[in-house]
Amino acid sequence: DVKVTQSSRYLVKRTGEKVFLECVQDMDHENMFWYRQDPGLGLRLIYFSYDVKMKEKGDIPEGYSVSREKKERFSLILESASTNQTSMYLCASSPTGGAGELFFGEGSRLTVL
Amino acid sequence: EDQVTQSPEALRLQEGESSSLNCSYTVSGLRGLFWYRQDPGKGPEFLFTLYSAGEEKEKERLKATLTKKESFLHITAPKPEDSATYLCAVEGGATNKLIFGTGTLLAVQP
């Protein structure tokens, strides 16, 4: 069964902490994405990557960075967490040419105090 | 501005009561329209892709249709296990990125 695995389902961090969210996919997909989901705002794209060591900004990249050292792994980094980054974070992957047919992970619910 | 709007925001149905969810879009150069299902506390699960007006796709009690301005997700004789949030997304527009709607929360009561 194909899978996108996010390392942490629930995290609680303090303002100013550095936060790492890890995502691994086992489908050999080229494309990987990080979204955040907030009530009333829907899914918003933070960063995406079409290849190893490649990254592109999405619609709301401020306060975030990403790393893709291996094809199967895409990490989201919050350099200095703030309370307005409290959200559900969703990682997704898709094969080349299948940009709209995303496979999502279970999500990581981050609370920043 | 490229936009995707879903309606209603929430819908409560009795088991067996058929209905439709709407996804309207204002995107130039549509490349694809996608429906997802999301259960509480989980990531969205892909359901359908529609590429051109007149196209239809079916899966169990769900049927998705597409016109030049909107898509409908028809639910026939729903069951409680169909309760979820249904998301619509559109690929196209100026940036060719995927734009998500805010979803319709469907509750089917036994």
- What would you call the structural class of chain A? mainly beta
Mean pLDDT of chain B: 94
| Global shape of chain B | globular
Estimated helix fraction of chain B: under 10%
The total of beta strands of chain B comes to 11
The outline of chain A comes out as: globular
Please describe the topology of this protein:
The complex is a heterodimer of chains A (113) and B (110).
Chain A (H helix, E strand, L loop, with lengths): L3 E3 L3 E4 L5 E3 L1 E3 L5 E8 L3 E8 L6 E2 L6 E7 L2 E6 L8 E8 L8 E2 L3 E5 L1
Parallel strand pairs in A: 2-12
Antiparallel strand pairs in A: 1-4, 3-9, 5-6, 5-10, 6-7, 8-9, 10-11, 10-12
Chain B lengths: L2 E5 L2 E5 L4 E8 L5 E7 L6 E6 L5 E4 L2 E5 L3 E6 L8 E9 L4 E4 L3 E6 L1
Can you describe what's shown?
The complex is a heterodimer of chains A (113) and B (110). With 113 residues, chain A is mainly β. Chain A contains no helices and 12 strands. Helices cover 0% and strands 52% of the residues of chain A. Chain B contains no helices and 11 strands. Chain B is 0% helix and 59% strand. The mean pLDDT of chain B is 94. Chain B is mainly beta. Chains A and B meet through strand 6 and strand 11 of A and strand 4, strand 5, strand 9 and strand 10 of B.
Compact overview of the structure:
By secondary structure, chain A is mainly β.
Defining traits:
heterodimer, A: 113 residues, mainly beta, seven-stranded mixed β-sheet, three-stranded antiparallel β-sheet, 12 strands, 52% strand, globular, B: 110 residues, six-stranded mixed β-sheet, five-stranded antiparallel β-sheet, 11 strands, 59% strand
